C-alpha cells in the first residue's frame, strides 16, 4: 500500500510517500524558518500562505523522486491537528481534494502520533525496529509528554509538562540571551563550547515522585544568571551548557522512572528536541545501564516532516481506519 503523507501543521511543509512493502520511497521538506525569523516566531497567516505556495510543487517533486504518479497512490494522509488552523487547512484541503479526485481514502493523522511513530520508520541496523510495548518521550516545541505505547493506536499518557514544553524552554532561553529565532538548536550548539558545572540550574520536579515536568522556572533562573553576568560570549556558552544539562538530566530522570512504572525496557524519543546530541547520548547511557535500549528517528525526522505522517497514515489505512470526505481539522486535540 502506497500512501502520500502531507504535513502542514506549523512552519514546515513536508511531503513523503511510504510503501508498506518497501518502506519510505521519497520525502521532501520546505522550511519556512527564514520567512518567520524577522518576527521572532511563527506568524500564522504567513505560514498558511507559504504552505499554499509550496505544497503542490513538493507533492510533484516527491512523486517524481519516488518514480510514481498519483495513480499509484492507495491513500493520502495529512496532519489533521493539533496545529495552526490555517496551516492545517491547507494540507487538509489538498489531501482531501487529491483523495477525492483519485477515489482513494484520505486519512487525518494526529501530529503527535506521527512524531511518536517516527522512530519506527526505519530499521536500526544494529538492533532492529523497536516494537511496542515501549515508552515514548515526545519532546517538541509544543509538547513534552511521556506516553506508554501498549500497541500501535493504544496510548496511555504517563506524564506531561505543566507549563512550557522542553523545546519552548530552549527557544525562550535562547531568546533572552539574544540568540535569533529559532534558538533551540543554536543554544545547543553554543552549549558545546560551554563548560559543565560553571552554572548549575535546578532539575525541576525531580525531587518528588511523579512523571510530570515543569520548565518555565528554568528560564527565569537563566534570566537572573544572565542579567548578573558580564554577558560575554564565554558566559553565554557556560549558561547554555548549564541550562542544557539541567533539561537533559531532568528528562533522563523522568524517562527512567517512566520505564520502571510501565515495566518496559525500550524507550523511543520523538519530536524536535530529540535532535539534541547530549540528550541522545544521555538516554543511550541510561537505557544501556538498565539493559534496555533507546531509539531515535534520524535527526531530520525528529522535527516536523511528511515521512512520519505518511507512515502513520499507512498503518491506519492498513488497519482499515480512515474518515469521510469532509475537510475538517482539529487545532486542539488530545492524542
Ligand atoms: O517537533 P518540532 O519540529 O516542532 C513542533 O512540533 O514543536 O520541534 C521543534 C522544537 C523547537 O522548540 C526547537 O528549538 C527544538 O525542537 N530543537 C532543539 C534542537 N533541535 C530542535 N532543541 C534542543 N536541541 C536541539 N538540537
Ligand atoms: Zn512537531
UniProtKB/TrEMBL annotation:
Q: Where is it located?
A: Cytoplasm
Q: Which family does it belong to?
A: Belongs to the KAE1 / TsaD family.
Establish whether keyword Transferase is in the entry: yes
Name the Enzyme Commission number(s) assigned to this protein. Answer: 2.3.1.234
Q: Name one Pfam family in it.
A: TsaD
Q: Which residues are recorded as binding Fe cation?
A: 111, 115, 304
The segment(s) forming the Gcp-like domain are 25-311
Co-factor remark: Binds 1 Fe(2+) ion per subunit.
Give the Gene Ontology MF terms in alphabetical order.
tRNA N(6)-L-threonylcarbamoyladenine synthase activity
Give the reactions, separated by semicolons, that this protein catalyses. L-threonylcarbamoyladenylate + adenosine(37) in tRNA = N(6)-L-threonylcarbamoyladenosine(37) in tRNA + AMP + H(+)
Q: What is the name of this protein? A: tRNA N6-adenosine threonylcarbamoyltransferase
Enzyme class name: transferase
What function is annotated for this protein? Required for the formation of a threonylcarbamoyl group on adenosine at position 37 (t(6)A37) in tRNAs that read codons beginning with adenine. Is involved in the transfer of the threonylcarbamoyl moiety of threonylcarbamoyl-AMP (TC-AMP) to the N6 group of A37, together with TsaE and TsaB. TsaD likely plays a direct catalytic role in this reaction.
NCBIfam families found in the cross-reference section: gcp_kae1 (TIGR00329), T6A_TsaD_YgjD (TIGR03723)
Amino acid at each position: 500500500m502506497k500512501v502520500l503523507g502531507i504535513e502542514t501543521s506549523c512552519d514546515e511543509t513536508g511531503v513523503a510517500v511510504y510503501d508498506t512493502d518497501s518502506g519510505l520511497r521519497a520525502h521532501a521538506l520546505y522550511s519556512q524558518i527564514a520567512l518567520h525569523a524577522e518576527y521572532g516566531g511563527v506568524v500564522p497567516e504567513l505560514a498558511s500562505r507559504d504552505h499554499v505556495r509550496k505544497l503542490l510543487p513538493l507533492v510533484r517533486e516527491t512523486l517524481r523522486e519516488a518514480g510514481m504518479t498519483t495513480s499509484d497512490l492507495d491513500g493520502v494522509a495529512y496532519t489533521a491537528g493539533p496545529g495552526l488552523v490555517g496551516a492545517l487547512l491547507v494540507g487538509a484541503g489538498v489531501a482531501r481534494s487529491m483523495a477525492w479526485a483519485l477515489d482513494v481514502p484520505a486519512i487525518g493523522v494526529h501530529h503527535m502520533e506521527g512524531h511518536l511513530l517516527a522512530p519506527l520508520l526505519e530499521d536500526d541496523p544494529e538492533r532492529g525496529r523497536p516494537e511496542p510495548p515501549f515508552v515514548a518521550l515526545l519532546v517538541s516545541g509544543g509538547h513534552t509528554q511521556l506516553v506508554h505505547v501498549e500497541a500501535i493506536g493504544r496510548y496511555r499518557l504517563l506524564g506531561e509538562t505543566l507549563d512550557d514544553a522542553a523545546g519552548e524552554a530552549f527557544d525562550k532561553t535562547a531568546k533572552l540571551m539574544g540568540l535569533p529565532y529559532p534558538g533551540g538548536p543554536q543554544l545547543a550548539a553554543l552549549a558545546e563550547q560551554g563548560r559543565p558545572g560553571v552554572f548549575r540550574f535546578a532539575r525541576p520536579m525531580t525531587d518528588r515522585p511523579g512523571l510530570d515536568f515543569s520548565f518555565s522556572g528554568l528560564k527565569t533562573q537563566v534570566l537572573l544568571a544572565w542579567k548578573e553576568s558580564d554577558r560575554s560570549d564565554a558566559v553565554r556558552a557556560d549558561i547554555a551548557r548549564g541550562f542544557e544539562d539541567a533539561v537533559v538530566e531532568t528528562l533522563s530522570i523522568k524517562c527512567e522512572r517512566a520505564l520502571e512504572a510501565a515495566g518496559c525496557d525500550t524507550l523511543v524519543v520523538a519530536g524536535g528536541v530529540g535532535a539534541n546530541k547530549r540528550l541522545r547520548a544521555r538516554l543511550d547511557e541510561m537505557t544501556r545501564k538498565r539493559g534496555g535500549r533507546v531509539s531515535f528517528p534520524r535527526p531530520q525526522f525528529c522535527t516536523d516532516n511528511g515521512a512520519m505522517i505518511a507512515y502513520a497514515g499507512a498503518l491506519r489505512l492498513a488497519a482499515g481506519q480512515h474518515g469521510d470526505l469532509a475537510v475538517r481539522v482539529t487545532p486542539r486535540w488530545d492524542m
